[in-house]
Amino acid sequence: MTTPSFIVELRKKIGHDLLWLNGVTGLVEDSRGRILLGQRADTGEWAMVYGINEPGEQPADTVVREIKEETGVDAEVTNLVAVISSSGIITYANGDRTQYMDHSFLCRLKHGGNADPFVGDDESLKVGWFSRDALPQPLAKSTVERLKIFDEYQRNKAAGDAHALFVADGQLR
């Protein structure tokens, strides 16, 4: 994964110290209910599109940009599903320590936009649409966790209770 230039500049000043970042996750669904996944180049795992907010960028804009950059797919945000802090500190191979506040968005294909995914950058090996009952393996742990959150949100929405989810006292609410 390419490290954004603003993080490279911060790391020059703070070294490997813990850095708190805003992240986004996008669950993109097509009209057949399939979801968009990419096979990550760094781990080989399949995952939803993730990304980091650039300074001054709105999280919904970030997720649309990341989806386009990584998969070539034109998407639009329909719902903010959850705002959740990562449960632990991530230590990268180079020693950098990070924790994320993730904004998870439900997205759909943009009317008239590109729906044919392709590998758009060096972050992915493959990208594609997958039925929920035939997901590729291995799935990234974070994708498995977030799929549960998206599923709960969609169940709540179908029952008429469509509010964003959050964690309080260690429980998803």
Summary tags:
24% helix, five-stranded mixed beta sheet, 35% strand, 3 helices, single chain, three-stranded antiparallel beta sheet, Nucleoside Triphosphate Pyrophosphohydrolase, 173 residues, alpha+beta
Can you offer a commentary on this structure?
The chain is α+β, with helices and mostly antiparallel strands and 173 residues long. It contains 3 helices and 10 strands; from the N terminus they run H-E-E-E-E-H-E-E-E-E-H-E-E. The strands form 3 sheets. Strands 1, 4, 5, 6 and 7 form a 5-stranded mixed β-sheet that branches. The chain is globular and about 45 Å long. It starts with a helix and ends with a strand. The mean pLDDT is 92.
